[in-house]
Amino acid sequence: MDRKQFADFLRSRREALQPGDVGLLHGGPRRRTPGLRREEVAALSQMSTDYYARLEQGRGPAPSEAVLGAISRGLRLSPRERDHLFLLAGRQAPAREPVKRARSVGLSRLLDLLRGSPAQIVTPAGETLAQTPLSLALFGDESVHEGLERSLMYRWFTRPETRRIYPESDHARHSRSFTSQLRTACIQQGAGSFPERIVTALLGQSQEFATLWSMHEIDAHHEGYEKRVRHPEVGLVDLDCQLLFSAGQAHGLLVFTAAGTDGQHQLRELSDAVGA
After folding, report:
1. CATH at residue 252
2. Residues 6 or more apart from 69 whose CB is under 8 A from it?
3. Which residues does the UniProt record annotate as the domain HTH cro/C1-type (predicted)?
4. 205, pLDDT greater than 90
C-alpha cells in the first residue's frame, strides 16, 4: 500500500468536493476548510471520523475492499478514480490484457476508409501505430520514435519541439489532459507496464509533470475535445477530435475533423498539397 499517495489522493478529492455537491449546507463564512471537512466525508462514508482521519494521515491498517467502496461512494468518485483508489490501497483492479502494439484489424480497416481525413491509431500510452497521409502532413511521422519517446505524453514533457505546433495558450490544457491519460493507462495496465515506466521517468525529469501528477486528476481528458494545430503552409487549424476505442480499449482511432468552414478549406488545401 502506498500510504503517502493514498493519503494525498483522499485529501485532494475531499478538498475538491463542495458541500453542495453532496447535499450539505455550505456552513456560512466561518467555513475555512477547502471542500468538505473530514467529519463530513466520514459521515458520508459511514465510518468514524477518527478512522477516516487516520487514513488521510497515512496511518492505521490497510483498508478493506468494503471500506474502500464506502469511501468511493462518500467522495463521489468516478469509476476510474475508484479504481485508482483501490490500486493505491494495494487492491488490484480487475486484470486486463496488456496492450499489444499490433494494430487492431477493425480499426485498421476504418483508418483505410478515412485516408482523406487526418486520423491515426494510438495506444492509451500515447504511441502512434499508424497515420493517414493528412495526419502525417499535420503532425509529422509520429511512429518513428523508440523507447519511452514512442509516447507523445513522454515527448510532451521532455522535448520542447513537441509543443511547437500547438499555441502556447493551449499548453496547460494539453499537459493536464496527457497527465490524466497516463494515470488512466497506469490504472488499466498496472505495475511494470509501459505507462508506469513513463510516469516513473517523468517524475524524475519534469517538475511540471510531477506537480500535475500530485493533483490526482482522472477525468481531465474527454473523448470529444478541440485541438488547435499550427501548420507552416495553411496556418492555425481548429480541429474537433473524436476517439473510438477497440474492444478492451487496447487501441484507439483518433479522428480529426474541421471545427468550422475555415478549417474545412485549410484541410482541403493541405489534402490537395499531399495528394490525399
Report:
1. 3.30.450.180
2. 82
3. 35-82
4. yes
